[in-house]
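Today's session is about reading a structure prediction critically. Students often jump straight to the picture, but the first step is always the sequence itself: look for stretches that repeat, for charged clusters, for runs of hydrophobic residues. Only then move on to the predicted structure, which in these notes is written as discrete structure tokens rather than atom positions. Here is the chain we will use throughout the hour.
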Amino acid sequence: DFLFIVACATVASPPVDLVIKACAQEWRTLATQVRHLVDQLEGPGAFRTRLLVLDQRAEGFTRAYDTADLEALRREANALVRRGLVDQVLDAPADGPASEALLSRWFGVSATASHTATGAPLIPALLGFEACASPYVLQVDADLMIMRTDRAHDPIAELVDVLEGDPHALTASLNICSSSDRVWTSEGPGGPWRVEVRGAMFHRGRLLAGCPWPNEVVEGHCLNAWHRAVDQGLAGRALRSYRGGDARFGIRTRKTRERPHAPQDRLALKLPYRVSAALAQARHHGREGENKQ
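Below is the predicted structure for this chain, in token form.
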């Protein structure tokens, strides 16, 4: 006889929603990336809802590294729903009336372009924030790499504590790989911390209450990416962006030069190695810093 025990994380309290943003170039690696994110972010607490938002752009990428295939991306995304890794897939609207309505609500401007003039995506994150219902939203890029050394440590609860501890806190970034803990602060040597676009938790109520965030239109496109618009509006709304965190959790993003250019997918196979390498690199730099002091 065999006894099977299935352990499931319980929904965090207060509840947190997860928004993962992906583009059409990620169709080969989406499944591996999303599995990695959910596994590394959840536990002990779980997200109330996991949303996957797909950018509809199929060409003109600012960092092109693979062929874009929207249909293949949607197939992979729908498969993730069937497997229970995400709860819902949202197609971010392309240029047109739907994007115009979102941009009007968030920035108070009249524009129909779903991307900035430089190609930065605007709509996926905004759509994700509006689709959520929890008081806190963790938004991440699909290609984020996460290092986690202690499953007992709850990185989501840590971010919530930061936002609940300051009534003026709007966002708290996921910690970067480090050999030691970093005190949570709202400013550094160069001034207030900027809003992090790759991976950060937001107080949804304060974010929506801050609309419209400052932006302007140049030749039919918004000038600022959504996070830069929020950046510019923080001071005028007495809001703060926080960075810091426990060293048992850290992130690292893949640089463009690390992307595979061949049709075959090597990134998915190398992902666990890259995360381990990021951890080793962070510890190495930490020791170097200690030796210089």
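Discussion point for the tutorial: Residues 256-269, 286-293 have pLDDT under 50 and may be disordered.
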